[in-house]
Write a structure and sequence with these properties.
CATH superfamily: Aldolase class I
Structural class: alpha/beta
CATH architecture: Alpha-Beta Barrel
Largest sheet: 8 strands, parallel, barrel
CATH topology: TIM Barrel
Radius of gyration: 17 Å
Number of strands: 8
Helix content: 25-40%
Order of helices and strands: EHEHEHEHEHEHEHEHH
Strand order of the largest sheet: 1-2-3-4-5-6-7-8
Number of domains: 1
Length: 213
């Protein structure tokens, strides 16, 4: 299963804004978006997930639902993303369709090993950079990424996440990371999707460009 190299994690002050931003991301060429809605009822989440599925299906963009595995199954999302305190990937796997992918969040080498044992399809390694000082979480940065990817030596794709900008991509890719997940830098400017895709060499849908020597 090929995991796209660029993931847009939805943002917005309201569920409606999340959907509008998902639409903008799809229009701008995102190959994968994650519906990241927190603190809404299951009924509302299902409604918005169905709308997100309709938008992404129109653009042939993959949709990942955060945390809610029953909803991910019901709307036939392309997959599920689980945080460290969410449902165990093994339990979620038993409920999902076999073709649905599962990604998990990791902050440490041990988190990564646990997720690999649980056979996730990709690992979101975060935070690359912290927006605010949080005592409980260590900012990994390039050194942290290198240490973890070298120790793991895994075929499971590692996706970098946390305050990543277009300026970080080249260095991050050298650290053995396969792709990146971005919220802020894309929500602030959807044109950045094109730049991220070019930097990642990501877009498989892009026309082949002929280069004349």
């Amino acid at each position: 299963m090929m995991i796209p190299k660029l993931h847009y994690i939805s943002q917005g002050n309201t569920p409606k804004e999340h959907l509008e931003n998902i639409q903008k991301a799809c229009t701008s060429g995102a190959e994968l978006v994650q519906l990241h809605l927190k603190n809404v009822s299951e009924k509302k989440l299902l409604k918005f997930a169905k709308e997100a599925r309709a938008i992404t299906a129109h653009f042939q963009t993959r949709l990942i639902v955060n945390d809610a595995y029953k909803i991910a199954k019901e709307v036939k999302a392309d997959g599920l993303h689980v945080g460290k305190t969410d449902v165990c990937p093994t339990i979620a796997r038993n409920h999902l369709y076999t073709w649905q992918m599962i990604g998990g969040t990791a902050n440490t080498l041990q988190d990564c090993k646990t997720l690999i044992d649980k056979e996730v399809d990709y690992i979101s390694l975060s935070p690359f950079r912290l927006a605010t000082e949080e005592n409980s979480i260590v900012e990994l940065g390039l050194n942290g990424y290198t240490a973890i990817t070298e120790a793991l030596n895994t075929a499971t794709p590692i996706i970098g996440f946390g305050g990543i900008t277009t300026n970080d991509v080249a260095a991050i890719l050298q650290m053995g990371v396969s792709g990146i997940a971005v919220s802020e830098a894309i929500t602030n400017n959807f044109n950045n999707i094109k730049i991220f895709n070019e930097l990642l060499g990501a877009s498989s849908t892009e026309e082949q460009r002929y280069t004349f020597e």
